[in-house]
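WARN no homologs supplied; continuing
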Amino acid sequence: MTVSGWALSAFLTYLLLIVGIGLWAARFSSLGISEFFVAGRRMNRFVVAVSAVASGRSAWLMLGMTGMAYTMGASALWAAVGYTTVECLLFLFFAPRIRRFAGAYDCITLPDVFARRFNDDDGRLRMALAAIFTFFLVAYVSAQFVGGGKAISTSFQISPTVGILLTAGFVLTYTVLGGFLAVSVTDALQGILMVLTLLGLPILVALELGGPGAVLGELRAFDPGMVDPLALSIGALVGFVGIGLAAPGNPHIVIRYISIDDPAQFRYVAVVGTAWNALMALGAILIGLVGRVYFPELDSLPQADPENLLPVLAAAFLPAAVFGIVVAAIFAAIMSTADSQLLVMASTIVRDIYQQIWRKDEELDEKHLVVLSRLVVLVLVAVAVVLGFFADELVFWLVLFAVAGLGAGIGPASILAIFWKGVTRAGVFAGMAVGSGTAVIWFLTPALRALIYELVPAFVLGFAVTIVVSRFTRPPDGVEEMFRVMDGEAALPRTGTGDTPS
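OK structure emitted
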């Protein structure tokens, strides 16, 4: 077998393992819509912790952050400080409350939570959220497919078109088969693989270069700012830290909180999830730093693109089979986001639009809903693939806006809905419009975009407008009882059916 053959075999073995997990989870996920979309709200705490952080990082961590550290040096760590801190706080304070609420009121999706929290009888709030999620996340998934296609194409010398189709095919297979259980277990496995790759590779490279001291000396000689974490402007620092504000508005992260079996386990989840975030970020930054010493000139990387650093460095230092595993780790980062976003979109279409609005007054068979959900996932994958082939520029723009738009549009409302009794449905609508609108305007205005990342001002304005409008409008009925549930003072009924094998 040739060297490339060993690498390809290792990569394909990993993918077959992922498909096997989908087959294993298929029986449980077929029981009903709750099992398919949130694993009956009985997920294991370790799986929730690792899959939550893995699904939030995507290829941005494996390729983007390593490239950022290659270009900027140690100051890239502030991009990780923001999301690591915010997600830790969400695990500790936000997640237990929304899980209790979801369990008590049988919520499967984030629009479910909003609809029950704000007595959305006419379905307008549910529809607005479903439309926002579907519109932006289909482009996000498309971008993940394109990224996966490029990773496979570069690593194994096949066409990008075939790479995109293979990426979409594997994600589709285990997501359709195993639903949320398969997605969460595979994301946890992929999170482990990401940590091993991100920490193991820079250690090997640093040893080859003479150890940590030699690496630091080379970086200082090249540019002292490379080892100075404060070598950036105040605006850039605030913008980097502000990346974390996106987390409460990203439904594929929040849905992990709803899926856990016991809300009391979130302290454990916070410790494990925060440690995982920190380890992955540390590894990505170290790869960028050692990569800058090994490839001092940007032109030495393919297409002079720093985001190609990780696979090139792995190819230079690792045996072929191990290189195949590294490519699998990059691919894992991509899949861990795409699969979660597919389920969010499918759940909003089937649960929020079809079941709760279109056929609201009918008793629907659970297995029929699961079959429909699988068909919707298939259609969404097809749309994302087509978008990736024919609308590269549109996809790029929508992904940039999706992070800021969802974070600023949905994040403030999510936080206020869980922690403030006075927030109203009118306030949520106003905050969503202002937060998302500000993100768009800021992004399209070069002078503003040069000042700070658009998510930060958009989030602040969306938060403020939600509060102001809520002060002049009436909160929904039953808020006191809802908060007793979230505070853990009211009895939490057992939810879901069957036993999860997780």
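Residues 493-502 have pLDDT under 50 and may be disordered.
OK
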